[in-house]
Specification:
The complex is a heterodimer. Chain A is an all-alpha fold. Chain A is built from eleven helices and two strands. In chain A, helix 4 runs antiparallel to helix 7, helix 8 crosses helix 9 and helix 10 packs across helix 11. The two termini of chain A are 28 Å apart. In chain B, the strands form four sheets. Chain B has a four-stranded mixed sheet. Chain B is of the alpha+beta class. Chain B is built from eight helices and ten strands. Helix content of chain B is 26%, strand content 16%. Chain B has two domains: 219 residues, Alpha-Beta Plaits (2-Layer Sandwich), CATH 3.30.70.20; 36 residues. The chains are: A mainly alpha, B alpha+beta. At the A-B interface, helix 3, helix 4, helix 8 and helix 10 of A face helix 3, helix 7 and helix 8 of B.
C-alpha cells in the first residue's frame, strides 16, 4: 500500500521531501463529475429560488430547459455521492481522534495547526463536509421526488407537498453553506489540496504537516513525530 | 386604429371631453355559481372544451355522474357530484361546478418562480402564460384548491382562464353562455356578490334553507368565482370545497422571510470566507526546516 502512494520522482529520493499520491485518477474523476452535477443543480436551483437570480437559468439554456434537467442532474449527483461514499467510506468514518480535533477547531481556523492533534487522510472538518453532503443529497432526493411528481401527491396529503418544499429548501441551503466553505478551503485556504484534486499528488511535507497519520501510514515514516515544518 | 377595449384619456383635434371621460368602471369581474339551481347537465363542461379547443378525453366511471375525479390540464371545468346525507337521513345530490377560483390573493402566483408565467389582471382574472411557464409545478403547492394541472407533452401548467380572451372582448365566459338553468352568472364582483346575497336571503327566508349563504372565502382575499351554497357552513360536502382556504403558510414563509434569510445566509457565507482569508490567509505550504532530515522522508528506505 505504502509503495503505491509514493510517486517515484526525483523529489522522493532527492533533496526536499518528495510527492505523495493523495487522490487517484478514479477519485479525481468522480470528484469532478460530482461537482459538475452539483454546480448544475446549484445554478438552476438558485434560479428557481429567487426572481433576482432567475437570470442564472439563461446561462444553462433558459427556464424550461433548466427545469427539465435539474432533477436529472440531481439524480446523477445522488449516484455520484453514493459512489464517493463507496470510495471513501473508510476514510470519512469518524474516529475517536476527531473529538480532540473538533475541540481545537479554533486553532485550525486561525492557522495554528501545530496545536492540533495529528489527523488521518481527512480531518474532522472534511469528514463533516462529506456527511453533510451525503445526508443532504438523500434529503434533496426524497424531497425532490415530491417536487418532481407533485401532482402524484393527492390533495388530501397536501402536507407532503409542503414538507417537500421545506426539506428541499433547508437541505439545499445547508449544502450551499458547506459548498462555500469547501471551495474556499480547498482553493484559497489550502491551495495544495486543490492541486491534489487536479494532479493527484501533494508534497510529503504538506502531508506530514496536515495529515500526519495518513502520511505515516502511506510512507511508513514514523520518525521524529515532533518534527515540525514551518 | 382605435382600441375599443381601452378607455381613452385624450383625443387629438377633438372638441369637448373624450368619450367616457370621468366614467368609473368596475373592473373586478366575477362568476357566480348558484349550486341550488344547478342540474348537473354538464353543458358548461362541453362549452369550456369547445371554446378552448380541447377534444373530449375518456371519462372515468366511478358509480357517479361525475365525468372524472378532478379537473385535468385539458379539462378545466368539472361538475363535482356528491350524494350527501342530510341530518334527517334523507339524501340530496349536491352538484358544484369546479374550476379555478381566481383568488384575489393567488397562491399559484405567489409560489411561481418563473418571470411572467402567472399574471393577475386588474379585473381579477388570474391567467397562466404558458410561453413563460417552466413546468416546475410550484403552483400546485401554492393553490389551496388543487387546480393547476401539468401537461406532460408541452411540460406547461394549465387551468381555467375565466375565458380571458372572451372577457377582454366584452363577452361572458363560455360556461356562463351555455348554462340552461341560469345558475351561472357573470358580471362585476360587486353585482355578483349582491345577487348572491339576495339569492341566499331568498333561500333562507322563502325556502326554509336556513344555512344558505355565499362562499367568497376571505382567507384568499375573496375569489373571482363565488358560490351560493345550501349549507355555507359545510362547503366540504360539495366535492371538497375547502372551508377556509388560504395560501399555505409554508408557501408564504418560503416565498417571504425564507428568501431573505437564505440569501443573507449565502451572502454571509461568502463574506465570512473572504474576511477569513483577509485575516488569516492561506495555510502555508510547509518547508522542511530540518534540512538534514530531508532525505529521510521515505522512513529510512532508499
Amino acid at each position: 500500500m505504502s509503495a503505491s502512494h509514493v510517486v517515484s520522482s526525483k523529489r522522493t529520493t532527492g533533496e526536499s521531501g518528495g510527492e505523495i499520491v493523495r487522490y487517484t485518477l478514479s477519485e479525481r474523476v468522480h470528484h469532478w463529475l460530482g461537482s459538475l452535477f452539483y454546480i448544475y443543480c446549484l445554478i438552476t436551483g438558485l434560479a428557481f429560488w429567487s426572481p433576482y437570480m432567475y437570470w442564472l437559468a439563461a446561462i444553462v439554456g433558459g427556464g424550461p430547459t433548466a427545469r427539465f434537467w435539474h432533477p436529472w442532474f440531481g439524480l446523477a449527483f445522488t449516484v455520484s455521492m453514493v459512489w464517493m461514499y463507496k470510495m471513501w467510506q473508510g476514510d470519512v468514518a469518524t474516529s475517536a481522534d476527531d473529538r480532540g480535533w473538533s475541540e481545537g477547531i479554533k486553532y485550525y481556523i486561525e492557522n495554528e495547526d501545530e496545536k492540533l492533534p495529528a489527523v488521518g487522510r481527512f480531518n474532522y472538518g472534511q469528514k463533516l463536509f462529506f456527511w453533510l453532503m451525503l445526508y443532504g443529497v438523500i434529503l434533496l432526493l426524497l424531497s425532490g421526488l415530491g417536487l418532481w411528481f407533485v401532482e402524484s401527491i393527492p390533495g388530501s396529503l397536501r402536507w407532503l407537498r409542503y414538507l417537500a418544499v421545506t426539506v428541499h429548501v433547508v437541505a439545499a441551503l445547508a449544502t450551499i453553506g458547506a459548498f462555500i466553505i469547501h471551495v474556499y478551503m480547498s482553493v484559497f485556504m489550502e491551495p495544495e489540496s486543490f492541486h491534489a484534486m487536479i494532479r493527484g499528488s501533494v508534497s510529503a511535507a504538506w502531508a506530514r504537516t496536515y495529515h500526519r497519520l495518513w502520511y505515516e501510514k502511506v510512507t511508513g515514516d514514523k520518525s521524529d513525530p515532533e518534527r515540525r515544518y514551518r | 386604429m382605435s382600441q375599443a377595449t381601452l378607455s381613452i384619456r385624450q383625443i387629438s383635434g377633438h372638441a369637448g371631453a373624450a368619450p367616457g371621460e370621468n366614467v368609473e368602471r368596475d373592473y373586478q369581474v366575477c362568476k357566480l355559481i348558484d349550486t341550488t339551481t344547478c342540474i348537473g347537465c354538464k353543458a358548461c363542461e362541453v362549452a369550456c372544451l369547445e371554446w378552448n379547443g380541447y377534444t373530449f378525453t375518456d371519462t372515468v366511471f366511478d358509480n357517479s355522474y361525475q365525468t372524472m375525479p378532478e379537473t385535468a390540464w385539458n379539462y378545466w371545468n368539472l361538475i363535482k357530484f356528491n350524494e350527501h346525507e342530510r341530518a334527517d337521513g334523507s339524501i340530496t345530490l349536491l352538484m358544484r361546478k369546479d374550476q379555478c377560483m381566481h383568488c384575489a390573493d393567488p397562491g399559484c402566483l405567489k409560489a411561481c418562480p418563473a418571470d411572467g408565467a402567472i399574471v393577475q389582471y386588474t379585473n381579477g382574472i388570474v391567467d397562466f402564460q404558458q410561453q413563460n411557464c417552466i413546468g416546475c409545478g410550484y403552483c400546485v403547492s401554492g393553490c389551496p384548491f388543487d387546480i393547476p394541472k401539468f401537461n406532460p407533452t408541452t411540460k406547461k401548467m394549465f387551468k381555467c382562464t375565466l375565458c380571458v380572451d372572451r372577457v377582454s372582448e366584452g363577452l361572458e365566459p363560455a360556461c356562463i353562455k351555455s348554462c340552461p338553468t341560469g345558475c351561472l352568472h357573470f358580471g362585476s364582483k360587486e353585482d355578483m356578490v349582491d345577487l348572491a346575497e339576495t339569492r341566499a336571503k331568498q333561500l333562507r327566508e322563502n325556502y326554509g334553507i336556513k344555512e344558505a349563504g355565499v362562499y367568497d372565502p376571505a382567507g384568499v382575499g375573496g375569489t373571482g368565482v363565488i358560490y351560493v351554497l345550501h349549507d355555507v357552513n359545510n362547503p366540504e360536502a360539495y366535492g371538497g370545497l375547502p372551508k377556509d382556504p388560504r395560501i399555505p403558510w409554508v408557501v408564504r414563509f418560503w416565498k417571504g422571510p425564507a428568501k431573505w434569510i437564505g440569501n443573507l445566509a449565502m451572502l454571509g457565507g461568502l463574506l465570512g470566507v473572504t474576511l477569513h482569508y483577509l485575516r488569516y490567509g492561506p495555510k502555508e505550504v510547509p518547508v522542511d526546516v530540518h534540512e538534514e532530515d530531508a532525505k529521510d522522508v521515505n522512513g529510512g528506505k532508499p
